[in-house]
Amino acid sequence: MKAWDADGKPRKPRVLCIGAQKAGTSWLHEQLNAHPKIWTTPFKEVHYFNARHRPQDRKWLPWHFREAVRATEKRFAARGQEMPDEMVRYLVDMTAEPMFTPNWYRRAFAAAPRGMLPLDTTPEYSTLPEAGVADVAAFLPRAKFIYLIRDPVSRAISQLRMNLGRRKLLPKNPEGYLRHIDDPDLADRGDYASFIPRWQAHFGRDRLLILPYGRISTDPEGVMREVEAFLGIARHAYPKLGARVHAGRAAPPVPDELPALLRDRFAGQYDFLRERFGPAFVADLDAPAPSISTPPARPAAKIAAPVVAKGGAHAAGMLKWADKPQPRKPSVIGIGAQKAGTSWLHAALDQHPQLWTSPLKEAHYFDHLFCPENRAWTGRNVSNSAANLRARYDRQGKPVPAALSDYLARLEAPPQFTDDWYRAIFAPAPPDARPVDITPAYSGLPAEGIAHVAEYLPDAQFIYLIRDPVERAISQLRMNLQRKGRSPSGAEEWLNEADDPVLDSRGDYAGHISRWRAQFGPDRLLFLPYGMIQSDPAGLMARIEGFLGLKAHRYTGLERRVFATRGNAAPPAHLDATLASRFADQYAFLAENFDAEFNALLR
Q1: What digits encode the pLDDT tens for the residues 170-209?
Q2: DSSP symbols for 533-589
Q3: Residue of 51, 52, 12, 46 lying closest to 29 (CA atoms)
Q4: Is the dihedral of CA 249, 251, 256, 262 positive or negative?
Q5: pLDDT band at residue 103, thresholds of 50, 70 and 90?
Q6: Do residues 482 and 545 lie in contact, with contact meaning Cβ atoms separated by under 8 Å?
Q7: 140-179 burial by CB neighbour count: b if 16+ within 10 A, else e?
Q8: Which segments of the chain belong to CATH 3.40.50.300?
Q9: In Å, what is the CA distance from 184 to each residue of 171, 189, 418?
Q10: What is the rounded end-to-end Cα distance, in angstroms, of the chain?
Q11: 259 close to 153: Cβ distance less than 8 angstroms
Q12: Which end of the chain is more exposed for a tag (fewer CB within 10 A), N or C?
């Protein structure tokens, strides 16, 4: 049991960890509890200020304290110890009315011996209104505050899983999460743009330390050194720096579209964090973005060939797996454009015996290196793709093959987006098969990124699918609206939604194609019109076979649509004309650089 002064006088806390929820406060509480100069209450969260200033919290606070008492009792029982009498009296006092008075709050820290700093870790404090933060400043004129901040999307997903678990509403499949994403708590608990300025208005840097959550995993000792310096306490050797606290119960992975949908909703939070703290801090909200330079090499993970039952996981790329996997580079790259048939192309190329496609369609290696704005989500893209692949086996009632499990674990483990990591993606490709990477985001690489691709992959060939600019933009618009859970009700709303610069940037053929042509000739770069997928899919694949020097193959399911956008009423007819005018330069470029037959097949 922590040092205990049974005759101690009521006192105020000197250290408060104020948030954010699901941003590592339990981990920080665990570390500080191990420090000889920090005193923690038997239960982590005291909830004094939010009980006074957030009336909506009062309905669940009785449950919280009942659970806190039960958890304390279980902790002693698990150690085979009887709870000391002074601890019993303390818990009885803390749960007796009246609660949440100034004297009650002081009594919560009365047992802290002199010379120790009492700690209150209550993440709800970060959400206090202005009057609440002013009350904190007046009531605790000497206290110091620590605020942990996590990536808005990751934090919301973690909270969503926790909330559903507590309510016993965890979904049985990934899509089940989508029914709960409008829970206002997800936005409320992570409203950094509102909360942080309130706290910074009352406390300077000498009293308010703001830290990014990602450093808990990448540099936990560095985090604690910074906390110790901020609090003015001596260095300490913490025994559980690498331990996860409250990691959450087992649950299905979230669907692929959920992170993108939430990212759109929280765009304002990302803008605020970048403006307030800078890109380096934002990169640490989950994990730091690797630099372009390659870190010291480490031995590549050995991936054994999996045993796959007949008729098994062809879609997972496992019917073609090298006996002795060796890291290697891809030699076929599908580079774009978004919403121009790259998923269909991936499914078709996966069938050819002379090609090998990764179980994860999009590697995002080069855009992670050269498009800094993508780094906020490329790591999660890998994790979510791996989680969904595991869920596919789970839905079929089959275990994930050990080799595939090892493969996914290697790709999810840091460091990611290094040369070794990228080569490991294609390690399972048989020696006689050409590895394929299809990542449409590559089409938008800057000139220096494409130059790097040319140097790094001197023998690779590239396939670029092009779709009619208006059709592509409308398809992307509908996908984005679906991810945001919005459905425009009239022509004006459609026009407002279409005023999104992303529609222009993802379909900037005039800028993108010119850059790729500057590096690669027709022997290495093949342009194909999207319309052939519907009008002549076999002919399109024959062109690809001729370009890549492959044997003719009989494909199945070429008529099947992949990732067709669901929902949303059809946009108004005049939206086509509006976008056609907006993309006039794109149409002029395509007409000038491709013949009439090619342009006719863009739809």
Answers
A1: 777 667 777 777 777 777 788 999 999 999 999 999 999 9
A2: HHH-HHHHHHHHHHHHTPPP---S-TT--SSPPP--PPPPHHHHHHHHHHTHHHHHH
A3: 46
A4: negative
A5: very high
A6: no
A7: beebbbbbbbbbbbbbbbbbbbbbbeeeeebbeebebbbe
A8: 15-45+118-283, 329-361+434-600
A9: 19, 9, 38
A10: 71
A11: yes
A12: N
**In 374-517, which ranges are E strands?**
434-438, 461-466
Would you state the CATH architecture of domain 329-361+434-600?
A: 3-Layer(aba) Sandwich (3.40)
pTM: 0.51
- In 3-state terms, what secondary structure has residue 119? strand
Question: DSSP character for 214?
Answer: T
Please give the residue that has the higher pLDDT: either 27 or 391: 27
Report the number of secondary-structure helices (H) and strands (E) in the chain.
Answer: 29, 10
The one-letter code for the residue type at 134 is A
Residues 6+ apart with CB under 8 A from 307: 401
Distance CA 231, CA 226 (A): 9
**35 bridge partner residues:** none
- Size of the chain, expressed as the number of residues it contains: 603
Rg (CA), the chain: 28
